[in-house]
TrEMBL record:
Its main location: membrane. It comes from Nitratireductor indicus C115. Residues 248-448 form the Histidine kinase domain. Its EC number is 2.7.13.3. The chain crosses the membrane at residues 169-192. It is found in: Membrane. It catalyses: ATP + protein L-histidine = ADP + protein N-phospho-L-histidine. GO terms for molecular function: phosphorelay sensor kinase activity. InterPro entries: HATPase_C_sf, HATPase_dom, His_kinase_dom, HisK_dim/P_dom, HisK_dim/P_sf, Sig_transdc_His_kin-like_C, TCS_sensor_his_kinase. GO terms for cellular component: plasma membrane. It is an enzyme of class 2 (transferase). Keywords: Kinase, Membrane, Phosphoprotein, Transferase, Transmembrane, Transmembrane helix. This is histidine kinase.
Length: 448
């Protein structure tokens, strides 16, 4: 897929969208997970706070003491990351995990029974803490004394859990990305398949296997198909009109040419041979131009039913060429297997072969060979003469309209140009080359 491919652009856009969506999903899921963990931790802290309050009592001296520690063993491990602290009027109790440190609580004491949630930047080990603080009034047996109870936990546990969550999540997001990109590829392939169908149909039209798209497409593509068919209709109409005008012009010139031919005969009867020869040369040149235009207007390019039997057509043309003054002096050597059919109108094929054989007969010394074979879905027809050939530097010029490398004859330099026109109309190719067997004109035709 090239950089200008619509398929590639859609796939890139889909892949970028999928990756962006998954990145946002990963961020959102991580934030939700962090909030969930944080709420879970806060719920555990409230449970711990309740246990701390439940363990408070007074000793024989009347001081607040902790008689029943909270169940979590981390409260007994120094700098474990889980702490509690109780502040009364004349007493401050701390968990063993605080060691010799204290929780630096804000000065805004909460109302009785209310709960405050804090974040402390520096805990006993320099770690950030999440703190749940509550001010409560002890029961009557404990003299209704008001105390502030705080429970704290290392906030790094949330970050650690979030990192572990992201680590576990990434492989699944990678697999999901591959699946979604694959689904996007399938979606693009299905969505663009009508365009592929149009391309294939247009290729069939260009190859002469169809004349119109002429099929149903999705609603979004159907207007395009309709416009293409309308364009093809307009093109066919223009071609028919142009052929009609060319045919009218060519036929209109036929009558004056016939009159000039009669004048040539009358000049010869008056012994004005030089003038008659000059007019006849010009007349022949004009006739070949007219014949060329008639050939072009007759060409049935694009006809999907066109089919020619190569051996049969070539033999018919060869029989005519061998009876001409130039062809009658030569040995004709055809090697044309049966069963070779080309996708070309028989009249157009005969016109092309006639010009090629006429050209070969004009330059051959003793013989002309005609061969044909099928190769890679095409038919290669070669006409080989044993003449002097054409200098390599001038072969390209031989295919140009109106160019004659041999000035001796009366031809107008249009024979090979006519063959070129016919070849282009039928997806054929004409090549000229000097080979060991002789000068070769090769016509490559699409097989039918």
């Amino acid at each position: 897929m090239s950089g200008g491919s619509l398929r590639l652009r859609l796939l890139l856009a889909g892949a970028v969208s999928v990756l962006a969506a998954l990145a946002l999903s990963a961020l959102g899921l991580t934030l939700l997970f962090e909030r969930h963990v944080e709420r879970r931790i806060e719920a555990e802290l409230r449970t711990d706070l309740t246990q701390v309050v439940a363990g408070l009592d007074r000793n024989t001296d009347g001081k607040i003491v902790m008689t029943k520690p909270a169940a979590d063993p981390r409260f007994e491990q120094p700098l474990s990351g889980l702490y509690w602290q109780v502040e009364a009027e004349d007493t401050r109790l701390r968990s063993r995990s605080l060691w010799d440190a204290e929780l630096s609580l804000p000065q805004d004491a909460p109302p009785d029974g209310a709960e405050h949630r804090h974040r402390i930047a520096d805990g006993p080990a320099g770690e950030p803490l999440i703190v749940i603080e509550r001010r409560i009034t002890l029961p009557q047996r404990l003299r209704n004394e008001a105390v502030t109870v705080a429970v704290a936990i290392d906030a790094g546990e949330i970050d650690q859990a979030a990192r572990a969550f992201r680590t576990d999540l990434l492989p699944y997001l990678g697999l999901l990305a591959l699946f979604l990109i694959g689904a996007a590829y399938a979606q693009v392939a299905v969505g663009l398949s009508p365009l592929t169908a149009i391309r294939d149909r247009l290729s069939a039209i260009r190859a002469g296997k169809a004349t119109r798209l002429d099929r149903s497409f999705p609603r979004e593509i159907q207007p395009l198909a309709t416009e293409i068919d309308a364009l093809l209709d307009a093109r066919d109409l223009q071609i028919r009109q142009a052929r009609a005008r060319a045919a009218d012009l060519a036929h209109g010139l036929k009558t004056p040419l016939q009159v000039l031919a009669g004048d040539v005969e009358r000049l010869r009867a008056r012994d004005e041979t030089p003038l008659a020869d000059e007019i006849e040369t010009l007349l022949e040149s004009m006739r070949r131009h007219v014949d060329r235009e008639l050939t072009r207007t007759r060409m049935a390019a694009g006809n999907p039913d066109a089919r020619s039997d190569l051996a049969r057509t070539a033999m018919q043309v060869m029989k005519v060429a061998s009876r001409t003054p130039e062809g009658g002096r030569l040995a004709w050597k055809p090697a044309l297997p049966e069963g070779l059919f080309a996708r070309i109108d028989p009249d157009d094929l005969a016109e092309a072969l006639g010009n090629l054989m006429e050209n070969a007969a004009r330059h051959a010394r003793t013989a002309i060979a005609i061969t044909a074979r099928r190769e890679d879905g095409r038919i290669l027809l070669r006409i080989i003469d044993d003449g002097p050939g054409i200098p390599e530097a001038k072969i390209d010029d031989a295919l140009k309209r109106g160019v004659r490398l041999d000035r001796a004859g009366g031809a107008a330099g249009l024979g090979l140009a006519i063959v070129q026109d016919i070849a282009e109309a039928w997806d054929a190719r004409l090549t000229l080359e000097n080979t060991e067997a002789g000068f070769t004109a090769c016509l490559s035709l699409p097989a039918a």
